[in-house]
Amino acid sequence: MRRFLLLYATQQGQAKAIAEEICEQAVVHGFSADLHCISESDKYDLKTETAPLVVVVSTTGTGDPPDTARKFVKEIQNQTLPVDFFAHLRYGLLGLGDSEYTYFCNGGKIIDKRLQELGARHFYDTGHADDCVGLELVVEPWIAGLWPALRKHFRSSRGQEEISGALPVASPASLRTDLVKSELLHIESQVELLRFDDSGGKDSEVLKQNAVNSNQSNVLIEDFESSLTRSEPPLSQASLNIPALPPEYLQVYLQESLGQEESQASVTSADPIFQVPISKAVQLTTNDAIKTTLLVELDISNTDFSYQPGDAFSVICPNSDSEVQSLLQRLQLEDKREHCVLLKIKADTKKKGAALPQHIPAGCSLQFIFTWCLEIRAIPKKAFLRALVDYTSDSAEKRRLQELCSKQGAADYSRFVRDACACLLDLLLAFPSCQPPLSLLLEHLPKLQPRPYSCASSSLFHPGKLHFVFNIVEFLSTATTEVLRKGVCTGWLALLVASVLQPNIHSSHEDSGKALAPKISISSRTTNSFHLPDDPSIPIIMVGPGTGIAPFIGFLQHREKLQEQHPDGNFGAMWLFFGCRHKDRDYLFRKELRHFLKHGILTHLKVSFSRDAPVGEEEAPAKYVQDNIQLHGQQVARILLQENGHIYVCGDAKNMAKDVHDALVEIISKEVGVEKLEAMKTLATLKEEKRYLQDIWS
């Protein structure tokens, strides 16, 4: 079989799942994939690799390669490597990202660009898949196109081998030209990927089925709208291309518990975990605010946990008790909730390189695993739906699950599964004849991820304490009936602090009483560059509407202490653009901001209220932070372009961060008198120089 090396760099398991799918499909197409995590550097060697390379890379944070790729990226970024270091290498790369973030697919782009700089060449165009609209829109056609690209590579490689010794080494200048061309061709390549004619008979399991079986009710489908459980023509009458069945690989044994104690310490983590008590919780918003915002203080004085303003950390959280209970009931496993789960790899599995899931600790109870280890709210992927088909007995339900995972049913999958935030429990309630075994769920449910939060304090200001701020997330799940759900972590934290919560919206700096809520587990996150400049004389602009203000409270507290310690020091201006809905309901840290302004720590405070009507005859004030930035465009441009200032943006990626970026483009264009494209290049340079920094989330 023709061999290729297949590497994946994953943060939450997406890239790994896609690489495994490629590995499984490879056999069908006459190839053998040598599959490894990119961190397993002892199992492959790119310096001597002669086979083609396929890489699947996700993106984490605000554009970083995943943690598993950190070492690999550091090694290839070594500036002493010659420009022909990987001249022998031919590769194809699939990047995963989310276009709601500025640095879309940047994890893949960093590796792609560096491989090119070191002489490697594509045998297949790079794909950039967007989680914002559905990874599968690019992933599926990219994989379909990989096989002809590999066949073409292997056909031409014999001839290439004969002349490879005579190939000239590319000059750095020509490499740069190639990179520019590659960047310009990127959008075209994405369009081409979407045009692939998946003459898929041989690329997927093809299911030829007539519409609804004759034993089903003879009601006119046109009388109903499509839903999670029901389709309408033409889909209900279409022949379907459905994915190949993922091979099962886990054998599960349930054993009566010996009553051993379980704790959050059993949860697996790449970083050290600290158990810390909650020492204070304050509600920052009024009860009639649209969103409820809480500030939580953690006591870290008895730990080695340290942070600086601008850092983020992770909270290890459980799934909702009621959802775990409902899921176990539906699976008819409620009476076995205390049983220990023992896992083995099936002896006869066809899954290549099958391994036990690392996020499921050995010997823990079923209840613990569903509560602390599995992301039961995860939106089921098409491969999961395909696996559920074979455990569904009702023919109409079976057909609908086939439609939802099929190529023809992509729009319905997006509408009724992805966009409706459907989870496994929703599917099992919607399809009552589906009775999957526990092993299938443990194979397909991803790891329950820790939730990241920005530090909202300075350890100089609050020694031994760590503050963070969050909205209690609430959203409507519309998968079956409308259900109001709370965020996994914020809903849990709100319940946890209920007994010690202070409703006082203008909290003081002093500690409250000694009542303590239970401890929570936290871990530090990879150091980022969202920090104050080393030189305190550099002016900074902070943009943080809503809970985006969190890291800037830490910045201001830190600066206040530095100014106390160095009364004659030279400190640059600090601008803050803050926004909320209503002045009297959700103006977070109002008292603290007045304090910083009064004492000259904060030099300019610009606040916008998006839902408050103008009072009397006054002109309509700025509605959003980007409007206020525009109003002060001259000063903003001066700080960034003449005074070497830094700008920090924290908050919502979907709307605010993009709107702020657009406002900055307009300001630079207007103040400097250049075209918008030139202004965009200026902002790109600021990002490169780490003077335009973002801490954003979707």
TrEMBL record:
Reaction catalysed by this enzyme: 2 cob(II)alamin + A + 2 H2O + 2 H(+) = 2 aquacob(III)alamin + AH2
Annotated EC: 1.16.1.8
Keywords, sorted A to Z: Amino-acid biosynthesis, Cytoplasm, FAD, Flavoprotein, FMN, Methionine biosynthesis, NADP, Oxidoreductase, Phosphoprotein, S-adenosyl-L-methionine
Family matches, as PROSITE patterns: FAD_FR, FLAVODOXIN_LIKE
Domain FAD-binding FR-type: residue ranges: 271-533
Pfam families in the record: FAD_binding_1, Flavodoxin_1, NAD_binding_1
Record domain Flavodoxin-like: where: 4-147
Protein name, as recorded: Methionine synthase reductase
Species, as recorded: Pan troglodytes (Chimpanzee)
